[in-house]
């Protein structure tokens, strides 16, 4: 059965559609959605079968995949990471919501979710109301991983209609939130207070340090 293709506006995402998406995630569905950077694919962090499906779509093994979590805000993060230092908290409070993935020391809850020992976890709070409202409605974070394009010029898929053509038989819902970016988030190692940039992306962390 083909995925449902729904339109949402980041400024004011329609509550009924957000609820439909979160209910789909609760029942083990996989969803493609926009972020403040590139389009991504994700599922409920507590559904192991859905996590395996996301990994399969990305041609990965679930236990080897480096998936990040999308959280609604900083208060959501505390369950999944070890306590933040004052410098870590200050920088993240200023930088989020924003185009960053912060790598943090994971709490004991994360290995149970992903099925293997993980010392670190990537945390995203994107500056886009669509994924954040989905997470808020769901009541917990979602797994997130970028949609890569095989195109030689564009690294990431930006057109939701083309994304639908490609993934309609692999996922349950695809959200059209307008054209996506072609630059991914900046990945920052925040396991210490040094904030080392692992991958340069859309965000400039030096503004917040």
From TrEMBL:
Pfam families: Sua5_yciO_yrdC (PF01300). Signal peptide: none annotated. InterPro entries: DHBP_synth_RibB-like_a/b_dom (IPR017945), Sua5-like_dom (IPR006070), SUA5_domain (IPR052532). Transmembrane segments: none annotated. GO terms for molecular function: double-stranded RNA binding. It comes from the Bacteria. PROSITE patterns: YRDC. Residues 15-203 form the YrdC-like domain. This is tRNA threonylcarbamoyl adenosine modification protein (Sua5/YciO/YrdC/YwlC family).
């Amino acid at each position: 059965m083909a995925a449902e293709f729904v339109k949402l506006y980041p400024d004011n995402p329609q509550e009924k559609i957000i609820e439909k998406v979160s209910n789909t995630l609760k029942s083990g569905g996989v969803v493609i959605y926009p972020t403040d950077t590139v389009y991504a694919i994700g599922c409920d962090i507590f559904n192991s079968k859905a996590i395996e499906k996301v990994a399969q779509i990305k041609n990965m093994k679930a236990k080897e995949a480096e998936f990040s979590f999308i959280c609604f805000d900083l208060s959501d993060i505390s369950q999944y990471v070890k306590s933040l230092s004052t410098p870590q908290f200050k920088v993240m409070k200023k930088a989020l919501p924003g185009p960053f993935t912060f790598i943090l020391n994971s709490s004991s809850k994360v290995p149970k979710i992903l099925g293997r020992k993980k010392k670190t976890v990537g945390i995203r709070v994107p500056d886009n109301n669509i994924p954040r409202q989905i997470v808020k409605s769901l009541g917990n974070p979602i797994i997130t991983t970028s949609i890569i394009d095989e195109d030689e010029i564009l690294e990431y898929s930006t057109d939701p209609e083309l994304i639908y053509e490609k993934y309609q038989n692999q996922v349950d819902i695809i959200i059209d939130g307008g054209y996506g970016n072609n630059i991914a988030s900046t990945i920052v190692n925040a396991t210490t207070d040094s904030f080392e940039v692992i991958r340069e992306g859309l965000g400039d962390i030096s503004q917040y340090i």
